[in-house]
Amino acid sequence: MALAPRFAGQSSHSLDPRAFHSLELYLDYVCPFSAKMFNTLYHSKIIPSLPSRRPSLRLIFRQQIQPWHPSSTLCHEAGVAVLQLEPDKFWAFSDELFKVQKEFFDVNVVGETRNETYKRLAKVAGKVQINEGAILKLLNVSDKPADDGSLNVGNGVTNDIKFLVKTNRLTGVHVTPTVLFNGAVEGSISSSFTEEQWEEWLDQNVK
Hints:
The structure is a single chain. By secondary structure, the chain is of the alpha+beta class. 43% of the residues lie in helices and 10% in strands. The chain is built from 8 helices and 4 strands. Helix 1 (32-42) crosses helix 4, helix 3 packs antiparallel against helix 4 and helix 3 packs across helix 6 (132-139).
């Protein structure tokens, strides 16, 4: 599936015209298995070496909201806010958020308001030198009706979240992580893959 320009930061590196293969990682910020897959790829030589070793491949982080964990939506809203403000820092922000993902699991958010959760997410963005105030300006939801009296006012990333969910639904992806290779679900890839297993799979499938 094509990557909308507004989500260009989800690509691991600048798109190379030779990148005719695509590997799409459908990940959720509050999914432990998504964190495991992300960490293996991000904290290894795989991603940094893609432009030189595998220029025919583009790796995309597809944000997959899992609504049975309400904080999943809030975390992905923060990711979209980063994409709006500083898309080049999306992967670094995601790394920081996965490191503290347990702080946003159900039992750790149930006692706070939505805007209080946003404040903690803005601090995560601050760890990669993104302006916390700018993030909060996009995320915070007003407690006042809109000028037309409507109450579902949303925030500064609502429209992007709607588009993200719409495009993800077209794939039928449900569980996380799910990996698509050239548009088809690749069931042989597991969150338990080691760096060596990733290298082996890439060597076999990406020419």
